[in-house]
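adenylate kinase: structure tokens wanted.
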Amino acid sequence: MFAETALVTGANGNPEYSAELDDNGSDTEVAREDVKEDNEDGEEDNEAGIEEGEREEKEDEKEDEKEDEKEDEKEDEKEDEKEEEEKDDGKEDGKDENEAGVEEGEKEEKEDEIEDEKEEEKDDGKEDGKEENETGEEAINEAEELGIREEEKSENLNEETEENVADEEEKADNIGDNETAVTVDIKKIPVVFVIGGPGSGKGTQCEKIVKKYGFTHLSSGDLLRAEVASGSERGQKLTEIMEKGELVPLDTVLSLMKEAMQSKAATSKGFLIDGYPRELEQGVRFEKEVAPAKFVLCFNVSDETMTQRLLGRAITSGRVDDNEETIKKRLKTFHDVTQPVIDHYNSKGKVKMIEAEGSADSIFEMVDKVFEEEGISPSKDCFGKVIFVVGGPGSGKGTQCDLIVKKYGYTHLSSGDLLRAEVESGSERGKKLTEIMQRGELVSLDTVLELLKEAMLRKVASSKGFLIDGYPRELDQGVRFEKEICSPQFVLYFEVSDETMTKRLLGRAETSGRADDNAETIKKRLVTFHDITRPVIDHYTKQQKVKRVSAEGGKDEVFAQVEKIFDEAAATEKALKNAKVVFVIGGPGSGKGTQCANIVKDYGFCHLSSGDLLRDEVKSGSDRGQRLNAIMEKGELVPMEEVLGLLKDAVVNNLTKTSCFLIDGYPRELEQGLRFEAEIVPCSNVIYFQVSDATMTSRLLERGKNSGRVDDNEATIKKRLLTFHNQTKPVIDHYKKLGKVQEISAEKGIDDVYVEVKQFMDSKKW
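Answer:
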């Protein structure tokens, strides 16, 4: 741990940092949210600092290029190995493009080709279906008992001229030649300086901004500590400087900030530079050498309030600097060094002053307004956990929602309540709603979604999740919600018999006086509920998202079931946070299956393939397996939701054995990767086995001599490779921008390729 990092002016007039090692751990987090502040010299209390794994990623350096030349006496052996690899790999990879119903994004096939190739593939499947390195997609194509129809991925390839095909292949062969990750210009990403005295509550506000707007929160103190803890050469030099009581140059601090920003630029919506600049020169240098500040968020709190908050913190913190005399000095120092900064940016019209005397939520309302005025929109990923709550009239779901709110801190939203509140507000929109309802017309779905989204945005910074009560009432509502807001974590469905619901509603009628609480009306309401709800439940059941609760018993008995669902979901979410997923991509004949097997053996990864998972699920005879079998027997594509459900279950079920996973041959299209990361876990890296089309063609043709497969001919191989490149390029480009792609040349023999794989694997902490 470090004590406070003091900023002073060096001999050359430039501001510099000094930090000392602190053995007493005084730099701990403050217990109370509204008083999380910096140490005496202005060092921040590490609110929402840089994530620990980031520094490890920055340390990883590319290994030197492998020597191509080997000893002469080993050449014959390597040639034998290469021939063996070409045969084995071909058996595995040739099926990658023939997934029947596995990848929902694949192009529809021409029906005449399906029927011709189906009969030929049945015989081939008997020979190739048992190969050790199959990823599972081939097995599905070849499994006669499943009746699965082979589908080509490219719809219009026969319309291509030979010249166009050749041109496209030449372009595809060059994909990934430049192994340098695409970088994002950090000067184009919003940067906000955050200034506030000790006890101003700016740390709490930064956390809310991060959650709602997707910004990255950076603190110079956090970066210095992280660099030292990393053990890097620079970190060791920093340790020496600080142990001698010398000053850390501003140049070093600026370098750390710039590197941190560049590492997050591809995924961050903006940067909060916390407690910075403390002196004018810092701000000037930062804007000149790193990026311009969009505005300065300044939290204004009286010295009396900050003193009171810090003294309150002292009761639990035990910090020696939380006493009135020291606090007084700290506040004076803060004002002396900060006022010139505020004056400078005020003259440029960049200071956004926030009166921060009130509650955290009321202060954030002002922060929200500033971001809105500056044209900064909430992040699309800001809503967090969303749960649809479905149940008929009298199912007791309202009571259960109240219990969930009380125990788990969710926000309970009902479209009906929101509509009534809008009408009662007397707003222009409320008046229009009144007119619509008085005419007996239905309120448009657009309006309902608008009200829901606004309510969620108001609460998102402080809510642990949302219960969307009585929604969706029909399938289109759910589909639109997912498209325009976000996907639900799951659907909580309270199942109750019509008899029980009728009995409950009639009992309520004795005291409610509601005109619709009579037997005839209740019967109609229940029929309507079942008619419109069944498609909703069927839709989300296919996605494995429906959590059914038998709600026939008392509220405590029912809530015990609800608790189990929420607790299991929380445990799964926690476990998934620790999971490390590597996408493995390579064309047919690239040898990725063989390399995956080596990684599993040496590093204990779990190797998953969507094709294998589909085949196993069908063979299991489960309800889902029967449903998938029916889909594939009809020659239809398996929806992406089904594939994602299988992958998620497989990851979760194997978390007790390992936290590291290879997802083989996935994603084939960018949308698959984005959905996987949004609904399961972000990938750590992408291993891309790069092989020239000439080599892959040679390997597949060699396989064709023995396999008898109709698709192991030069014309078909050319089409398959073109399809692979066209689908894969957007995937590789996307993950390159995130700095996650590791390209590995797979032109050599198995062992030579694995040397490079091993270098990459050893450079990471799995």
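The radius of gyration is 31 Å. Confidence is low (pLDDT under 50) at residues 1-182.

Cheers.
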